[in-house]
Structure prediction request, 241 residues.
Amino acid sequence: MAAADDLAKLARLRMVLSNCALKDVLAEIAPLANQVVSWIPVNTSGSAVCRYNAANGSRQYEVRYQVGDLGNLVHELTHVSVNESYDLDFINYPNTMAQNVPDRIYDGLGRCTNEGLRQTKQMNHAMNAQVGAMLKNINSWAVAANELSASQKKQITTKLLYGMMNPQKECDTVLNQILVWMYEWGYPMRGHMVRKPVVNALYEELEKAAAKLYKQRAAGRVHRAMVEGAHARRRAMGYSA
Ligand SMILES: [Zn+2]
Prediction:
């Protein structure tokens, strides 16, 4: 299976990396592949869709991605991680203040058909501005990094623009994707250099941002486990919810 080959490549990459943001991200997403019940190859773009089991609270995923593009695969699995971390219909930051969120409506496979409306209620404009600024900062480094080839720079800035247009759900994803691409392209540059390459500064900024979001997702999972544990206790005690 094509996905198995790509997942094996990610596992090998994780083995050879010394401690860094990308290694942490790969460790985070590796077990999530077990929740994917349907891998669907696509030629462009990609997506991660959740199949909720309303009866027992479990979640499985269908993932569309471009086979052979490890950056794209990491992008889609990052969507899965975000949904698992925050439980906000793929919104990529915590928000405990969301109000008037309508109950989920499901199709026959447990996919949420009113996800867009729920996302609108769960996004936060201040957080959108914050993650948008994070992407903009990385973009300014990418524009300045003349060690990148023209096509690499275009690929990175196009992806960052996509993130800036959808900061509520495409920040963690595009940063992790670019991290994989840059690693595969041979960055950061190593060796004795008179001046620090701008591309290395870009890589550092990217790593800093990715590490911050990685920690935020980890904290989100701790919070979610606590909330779900409290619900389970109340049910066990005989409360209705
Ligand atoms: Zn995406």
